[in-house]
Inverse folding.
């Protein structure tokens, strides 16, 4: 876990490569990522507050692969930490890890919204 | 003698929307009839394991299976057991978050064709696993028309 927030969290190069210039696909993937990220934010927090730690771990796990694809290593590490804490019912550092993760997820959402904006209205 | 094109049926089961779409794209890029002139590809993708099993065809050639399905009834291993029982000769390639070595070994022991971690190099690994599966398929005797 790291409190330091990098300038840019998401790297869209893997997605750009996968899209091969297909803008429709690129936008669809960004929207899918955005929706998954929003859902993950809500689900992790809800399950954490309700002390459904196994479900909290599942929600964190579900976000891992897309953040890995976006090369968001700090977020990925925090997601894995939250997942591990949930599986092991180890909640000692849960709040602080969640705080860091939530902040990075919010920044990620802003970045993806900006990318969507730039892609849909090219200069 | 004229040979009929072999149909390669590929099934993707991944419950995460984003990764499902990414896998679908990877597989469509790899399994391309313009590259494999002797083959026709039929690619289907599912997010729900029950839906996938219901529509599974006996002659499915390759399945890309997410190990960590967030379904309370069926996990990836359950799906694998069903596929192994039902399909004649389906090569199951399991894709998942990094697992411990013993999970990977267990999957391979149970007869999984290949196991791939979801990392930044997943695309290349899937490419080579599918190539291996297609080679195995291409080395089977062809049906003459």
């Amino acid at each position: 876990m790291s409190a330091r927030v990098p300038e840019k969290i998401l790297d869209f190069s893997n997605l750009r490569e996968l899209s091969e210039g297909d803008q429709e696909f690129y936008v669809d993937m960004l929207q899918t990522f955005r929706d998954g990220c929003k859902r993950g934010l809500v689900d992790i927090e809800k399950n954490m507050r309700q002390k459904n730690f196994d479900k909290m771990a599942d929600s964190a796990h579900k976000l891992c692969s897309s953040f890995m694809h976006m090369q968001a290593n700090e977020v990925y590490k925090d997601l894995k930490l939250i997942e591990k804490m949930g599986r092991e019912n180890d909640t000692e550092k849960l709040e602080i890890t969640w705080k860091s993760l939530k902040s990075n997820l919010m920044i990620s959402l802003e970045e993806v919204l900006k990318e969507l904006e730039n892609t849909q209205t090219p200069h | 003698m004229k040979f009929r094109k072999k149909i390669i049926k590929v099934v993707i089961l991944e419950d995460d929307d984003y990764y499902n779409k990414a896998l679908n794209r990877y597989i469509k890029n790899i399994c391309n009839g313009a590259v494999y002139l002797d083959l026709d590809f039929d690619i289907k993708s599912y997010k729900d394991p029950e839906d996938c099993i219901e529509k599974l065809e006996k002659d499915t050639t390759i399945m890309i299976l997410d190990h960590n399905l967030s379904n309370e009834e069926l996990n990836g291993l359950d799906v694998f057991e069903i596929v192994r029982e039902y399909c004649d000769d389906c090569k199951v390639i399991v894709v998942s978050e990094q697992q411990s070595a013993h999970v990977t070994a267990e999957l391979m022991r149970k007869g999984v064709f290949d196991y791939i971690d979801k990392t930044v190099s997943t695309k290349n690994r899937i490419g080579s696993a599918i190539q291996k599966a297609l080679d195995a398929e291409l080395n089977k005797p062809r049906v003459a028309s």
